[in-house]
Design a protein that fits this description.
With 516 residues, the protein is of the alpha+beta class. It has three domains: 42-79 and 216-390, 2-Layer Sandwich (BirA Bifunctional Protein, domain 2), CATH 3.30.930; 87-196, Herpes Virus-1, CATH 3.30.40; 394-515, Rossmann fold, CATH 3.40.50. It has a seven-stranded mixed β-sheet with strand order 3-9-10-16-13-12-11. Strand 4 and strand 5 form a beta hairpin. It is globular and about 80 Å long. The chain starts with a helix and ends with a helix. The protein binds adenosine-5'-triphosphate (ATP). Adenosine-5'-triphosphate is lined by residues 218, 250, 252, 261-262, 265, 267, 332-335, 374-376, 378-379.
Length: 516
């Protein structure tokens, strides 16, 4: 565990050192759980966005984009349920004065029991080898059966307490399970209270005439309120989707874990409108599609798992999370929810406007059902960064730090390095940059020995380095070095465009997406 914590610190340190992520307003000691993206960070972020956007909008004739405002009419949040129900149950430890989400404390406790189950499974798999039948083992092994029962009972009790707003029961559960504050080890807890996560603000100049607004806590509602605008102007037929990337704001109680849980973050959401009754088919479809999207990035299948929800949000009839093995363990990266007709119906009721679709095949109008896929851009960024950061042994004496970011997402694709700052080598390097810069992100570096420059580019995650030397002046060939294999080969300058651009191309990834 200590190792994992060290690795997480290393990821955070690396992100700062190489211009990926800075604390917001750092010169004033930062703002808690708010971050800025540096020169490499903004490129990686934009590339992830583009990959998502193209896969959704460009590759689907039935999905279109939208960019709704962050500020929305306050009734939106009444209708969506956020004013009344967008709460987290919080609890304070009286000794450490630390504040926690009560449900997260319980979930962490359950996760510990699950780790014991996984240990038993691992042991048994080793013992039985190829004959091992995991399902049978889990349903018959007495200790595992007992652990599973314990986990279910705890989750059921928590769900019950949350659904019925029985916060005293939740506190009792925490006490009965003997959950201690991770900081102080103390079990001296306050009562559990509800805390609304929306940031309030005012519209208008003077406070007496100003009306209360909220910064949107999710981008989804901007899509729902525009349902008819988009359907009519885009002449969309069900099933169809609306995709949006944008900022969302939540006054998170426990804002730790770097960019995983921020107060200002970005979501990439797609709401897919379907015929009532068809939602489970489309839920399964999008579950598979979204996993494909992740697979193509190649961050390792073992780093992903689905987590189906036992406790459903007030609007959902099915929900699953795609979880990623972050440096602090498996946590939600993306949510896929079957939101029923809850949102559109609620907006119909609060606005008095119809949000329906006339289905020519069924010859009737209805409020469509919705499947939502919602992924945190910042969490995806952290997943890429933490899966990419490696410490590698290069030879007997030397190690290197390398960011093996998927080439098509890397902030800078090519570094052009003149061996010396003279003899016409910089000029030749510039000629190469001028040719490549139209189609990809290129950088120039002429400081230090070339070996050190390679290490620097490895640490930034640049997939290819092109070194220009004296031979280049004679025969117009250069050395092309691969970040991952560290292989170097001689390539004609005239071939660089086709060789390099093909390797770093997003089109290649998008095509793979179709084939997986
Ligand atoms: P969590 O349970 O971790 O608080 P959530 O279930 O509330 O997340 P959703 O409302 O489903 O999250 O939001 C969709 C996605 O937005 C999440 O899967 C996550 O990737 C991202 N997200 C949510 N809250 C934050 C946050 N505070 N910081 C960064 N990303 C977030």
């Amino acid at each position: 565990m200590a190792k994992k914590q060290d690795f997480f610190k290393q990821v955070i340190g690396h992100a700062k050192e190489y211009g990926y992520i800075f604390s917001s307003s750092e010169i004033y000691d930062g703002l808690s759980a708010v971050y800025d993206y540096g020169h490499n960070g903004v490129e990686l972020k934009n590339n992830i966005k583009t990959y998502w956007w193209k896969s959704m909008v460009q590759l689907h004739r039935e999905i279109v984009g939208l960019d709704a405002a962050i500020l929305m009419h306050p009734k939106t949040w009444k209708a969506s349920g956020h004013v009344d129900a967008f709460n987290d149950p919080l609890i304070d430890n009286k000794d450490s004065k630390k504040r926690y989400r009560a449900d997260v404390l319980v979930e962490d406790h359950v996760e510990k029991i699950d780790q014991k189950v996984q240990k038993e499974i691992k042991k048994a798999r080793k013992r039985f080898g190829d004959d091992f039948d995991e399902d049978q083992f889990v349903s018959t092994h007495p200790r595992v059966v007992k652990y599973k029962e314990q986990m279910k009972e705890i989750i059921d009790r928590m769900t019950d307490a949350l659904e019925n707003n029985q916060l005293a029961d939740l506190k009792q559960l925490i006490e009965q399970l003997g959950i201690a504050c991770p900081v102080s080890g103390s079990k001296n807890w306050t009562d559990v209270r509800q805390f609304n996560l929306m940031f309030g603000t005012k519209l208008g100049a003077s406070s007496d005439t100003a009306s209360d607004l909220y910064l949107r806590p999710e981008t989804a509602q901007g899509i729902f309120v525009n349902f008819s605008n988009v359907q009519k102007t885009g002449r969309m037929k069900i099933p169809f989707g609306i995709a949006q990337i944008g900022k969302a704001f939540r006054n998170e109680i426990v804002a730790r874990q770097f960019i995983f849980r921020q107060r200002e973050f970005e979501q990439m959401e797609m709401q897919y409108f379907v015929r009532p009754g068809d939602e489970m088919k489309w839920f399964d479809h999008w579950k598979a599609q979204r996993k494909k999207w992740h697979d193509v990035m190649g961050l390792g299948n073992e780093n992903y798992r689905f987590h189906d929800h036992d406790q459903l949000a007030h609007y959902a009839n099915a929900a699953t999370d795609i979880e990623f093995d972050f440096p602090f363990g498996f946590k939600e990266l993306e949510g896929i929810h079957s939101r029923t007709d809850f949102d559109l119906k609620a907006h119909e009721e609060y606005s008095g406007k119809k949000l329906q679709f006339y289905d020519p095949e069924l010859e009737k109008s209805y409020v469509p059902y919705v499947i939502e896929t919602s992924i945190g851009l910042d969490r995806m960024f952290l997943a890429v960064l933490s899966a990419a950061l490696k410490e590698e042994q290069v030879d007997e004496k030397n190690t290197r730090t390398v960011l093996k970011i998927p080439a098509f997402l890397a902030p800078v694709k090519v570094a052009v390095l003149p061996l010396l700052k003279k003899d016409g080598l910089p000029e030749l390097a510039n000629e190469i940059i001028k040719e490549l810069q139209w189609e990809t992100q290129v950088t120039y570096d002429d400081k230090d020995a070339v070996g050190r420059r390679y290490r620097r580019q490895d640490a930034v995650g640049t997939p290819y380095c092109i070194t220009v030397d004296h031979q280049s002046l004679e025969d117009r060939t250069v050395t092309l070095r691969d970040r991952d294999s560290m292989e170097q080969k001689r390539v004609a300058m005239s071939e660089l465009r086709s060789v390099v651009l093909d390797k770093v191309s997003m089109i290649r990834a998008l095509k793979e997406l179709e084939q997986v």
